[in-house]
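Q: Given only this backbone (328 positions), what sequence would you predict?
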């Protein structure tokens, strides 16, 4: 556990994913608050229990959990906190998540079924070679994901600009869709800090194309637009969901825009008048990535191509169930 500012400490929790550790934040005071929890694995549970014990707390002591979004590496352990507090104190932990991510917490199993179906459809439509798609072992992957989360029927949802009392003052929930439909940053103006979840990360991609919601929106575009909500926050520090704090938020946002502009240009330069699959474009834009990054690369590549199509630079066509792209 690392103290960041008065009453705020970072707890790094291991995950089974390539991104590595997830950051959870303990805000001391009343109510004792935790922002995000980590996935439900024995290693993660042991880590957070040990870290809380160093400051004389137990899972049951956490009174309020604020969730930045509904992805499993951030919400998997919520049920453990809720059940432990209900057992010890007779009332469950107050758990809050944005209304658009509520299903991922309230009915995790249903959400995960839908999410895995979306992944299978993406892989099939992207023209992934059979030898590579079988390496993903879909059934094992589904089993893993379902094992590291649990439904929390008592979780409550909030809307944009909801406010919450914490030990460092009032924090405001600023809706920042893109990484997930209900992705949220919790802003404390009194301390000039932003708990940014996976919306603003310091040195890795936020993967804004993996929400797989049912709307026609382009996740990457939504994400880039949401970033601009925070571009004027000079002097604020962002405490992200992964890696180190971000000391210059406006500059980081400029860099993120530039990085995605570069990806768009690379995708545009790869287009020809001969049809190419999403998979083929992903290998040009993202290079020789590992199989465990395949879904992320496909999702972003598809969004890049949809953006180029919206700009009349590309045309997406479907051939035998596979989406292909040609230069417009």
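A: Predicted residues:
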């Amino acid at each position: 556990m690392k103290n960041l500012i008065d009453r705020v400490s970072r707890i790094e929790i291991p995950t089974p994913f390539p991104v590595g550790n997830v950051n959870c934040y303990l805000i001391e005071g009343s109510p004792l608050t935790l922002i995000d929890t980590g996935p439900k694995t024995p290693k993660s549970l042991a880590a957070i229990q040990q870290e809380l014990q160093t400051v004389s707390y137990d899972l049951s002591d956490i009174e309020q959990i604020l969730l930045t979004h509904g992805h499993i590496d951030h919400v998997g352990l919520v049920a453990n906190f809720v059940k432990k507090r209900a057992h010890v104190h007779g009332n469950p932990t107050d758990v809050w998540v944005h209304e658009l991510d509520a299903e991922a917490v309230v009915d995790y199993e249903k959400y995960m079924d839908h999410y895995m179906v979306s992944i299978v459809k993406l892989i099939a439509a992207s023209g992934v070679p059979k030898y590579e798609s079988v390496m993903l072992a879909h059934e094992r992957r589904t089993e893993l994901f379902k094992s590291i989360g649990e439904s929390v029927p008592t979780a409550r949802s909030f809307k944009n600009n909801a406010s919450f009392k914490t030990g460092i003052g009032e924090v405001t929930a600023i809706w920042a869709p893109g990484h997930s439909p209900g992705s949220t940053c919790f802003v404390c103006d009194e301390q000039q800090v932003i708990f940014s979840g996976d919306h603003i990360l310091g040195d890795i991609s936020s993967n804004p194309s993996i929400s797989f919601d049912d709307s026609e929106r382009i996740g990457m575009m939504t994400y880039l637009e949401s970033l601009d909500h925070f571009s004027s926050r000079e002097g604020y520090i962002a405490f992200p969901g992964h890696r180190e704090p971000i000391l210059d938020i406006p500059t980081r946002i400029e860099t993120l825009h530039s990085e995605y502009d570069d990806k768009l240009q690379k995708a545009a330069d790869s287009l020809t008048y001969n049809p190419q699959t999403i998979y083929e474009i992903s290998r040009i834009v993202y290079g020789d990535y590992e199989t465990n990054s395949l879904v992320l690369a496909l999702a972003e590549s598809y969004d890049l191509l949809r953006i180029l199509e919206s700009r009349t630079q590309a045309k997406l066509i479907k051939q035998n169930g596979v989406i292909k792209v040609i230069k417009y």
